[in-house]
Amino acid sequence: MPTEWSGAAVDPGGGKPEPRDWQDVDVPGRPAAFAGEDRVAYRTVFDDPRDTDDALALLELRGLYANAEVWLNDELVAESDAVFDPVRVPFEPDEENELVVECWAPEDRFGGIHDTDRIPASESVPGIWWGVDVTGQPDPFVVDVELSSRRTGDGATIDAAVEVYSSEPLDDRLTLTTKPAGDRRGRGMMDRASVSAAAGERAVAEHAIEVRDPSLWWPRGMGAQHRYEVRAKLDGAVRTETTGIATVEQTDEGGLRVNGEDVPVRGVALQDASVEDAERAVEVNANLVRAHAHALSEEVYEACDEAGLLVWQDLPLTGPGVFDIARGQELAGRLARTYAHHPSLAAVGIHDEPTETFVSRVGSGMLDRLRFRWRVWRSDYDRGAAEEVADAVPDELAVFPVVGEPGTDPDAAALYPGWDYGGVADLDWVTERYDLGGVVGEFGAGSLPDGVDPTDEGFDAAGFDAGKHDAAVGSDDAEASQAYQAELVRGVAERLRTDDAPVVVANALRDAGDAGMGVYARDGTPKDAADSLTTAFEPVQAFLVGASPGECDVVVANDAPESVSGRVSWTAGDESGEVDVTVGAGERVVAETVSVPKSASSVDLTLAVGDASVDNTYRL
């Protein structure tokens, strides 16, 4: 790929941008020097990339945010209007070649989370975010391989659409070889497909690859992550893509059923995802990541495929306001096709947080509950447009048309007790009054990482509501801030799990700015809430419901795919006990009702299953 790039802020005009002054930048990337700019041009010069056996070349650009025009040797060769849609341009290179890419900010409602103040301006710079490659190619050659899979009565089918380019008229057959990914010695299955193209045309050959007795891809904790590699070969040109075979259904309660098995979802929301976030999601015992109103890169999807993390992929649409339904439908279809080869793709969200009911925090007293109901009553949202866009999502994916606050009739609730209103104890009456006990797409609280002072001049407040934080925590002390977040995140997560909510998603995994809703800081350093979420998200765990002096139920939750039998032990002050328990797959069981003495300062629970055990401690 080209290594030396320059960039410049430009004005809208028309034609190839030619600013007077360029400055050195890194590509791919988001040059902080252009934070706040609406249009930025990027320029590089590269030599002919061909080897002796190559006749042509291929330019690939990934992650063009949010709109772009691509100029190659003074010719407009491509345009882009979606960051998730890669640009591929076959061309015959000169000895020296100039590439200019002009990127500009969203011009409609589909800029997503990067078009809000929840992401720092330095991370929303129009640009080439994910990658650039220029490679020599034979003539003809394979431009792209699109894959999607489906179960059939006899096994499964992988549908392949192979795009080829030829500078001369083409009438040929390409070879498709399919084998388990990572199987270097296996010969695999071989298929052939005809392909025809006029000179200079990009043609697509489609073929259905039959897979007998397929090895399925499973979410982590449910089975292995089997995948298949499909190799498309045309004469001397080869291109390979990987896919997996998994079916997804949406249950009547809004949950996910994968390969015919219900999957209790423990999820985390990603605000500006990196590959390392997949590892962090695994660390906190999540089995799903929600791409919160932004698209994930291929590298992040690949990491989720490998880790067995389901992906709930939002459209880049968030906040109040009307939007173009036809544009939304077109984007939803393209997004599903772009990521169809990833077995981790399980669900699509359409309109995120369409109201701003709780701009300021509401307390938990009697009058505060009246204020809460008044605000919800005043919120006005017509979900019809979101439902029309949702109709464009393929049937093989779950879909959540609306992710919103009480009063929006959401398909997935945004619930923030302890942050937007009241405390954890208010969760019950909110969910019961507004029938929000099913899918929860967001919950959590903000906090300050260690060493961060919100009064510093350079503090980046993107994604951090200082007013709600001060009202809830009452201090700018990082220790107190993180302690509050940790206890709230744990309390809500435990309550939702013991109430058997089919989908529970914490917001968020990692801060976007210098502080925020993440259980990890912006640089990936864990906050206190990372440990509390890890404990609350243990797949098999014992919980003390309503931890306080007096009688409390011990509930054991089992998210494993098989029944478990074990022993729960508890200690509260001078009192202790133990009880045997058996919990079916995906079930919750009250193991025992314990009496917590007033003198107890904590309650310790231990759940032992075979040689393994998990602990859960409650400070009173």
TrEMBL record:
Coiled coil: none
Lineage top rank: taxon: Archaea
Domain named Glycoside hydrolase family 2 immunoglobulin-like beta-sandwich: residues: 144-236
InterPro entries with a match to the protein in the record: Beta-gal/glucu_dom_sf (IPR036156), Galactose-bd-like_sf (IPR008979), GH (IPR017853), GH2_Domain-Containing (IPR051913), Ig-like_fold (IPR013783), Ig-like_GH2 (IPR006102)
Pfam family, one: Glyco_hydro_2
Gene3D superfamilies from the UniProt entry: Galactose-binding domain-like (2.60.120.260), Glycosidases (3.20.20.80), Immunoglobulins (2.60.40.10)
Keyword terms: Glycosidase, Hydrolase
Hydrolase found in the keyword field: yes
GO molecular function: hydrolase activity, acting on glycosyl bonds
Region annotation (Disordered) ranges: 1-26
SUPFAM superfamilies named in the record: (Trans)glycosidases, beta-Galactosidase/glucuronidase domain, Galactose-binding domain-like
PANTHER family given in the database record: BETA-GALACTOSIDASE, BETA-MANNOSIDASE
Protein name: Hydrolase
Native source species: Halosimplex aquaticum
Lineage, opening ranks: Archaea, Methanobacteriati, Methanobacteriota, Stenosarchaea group, Halobacteria
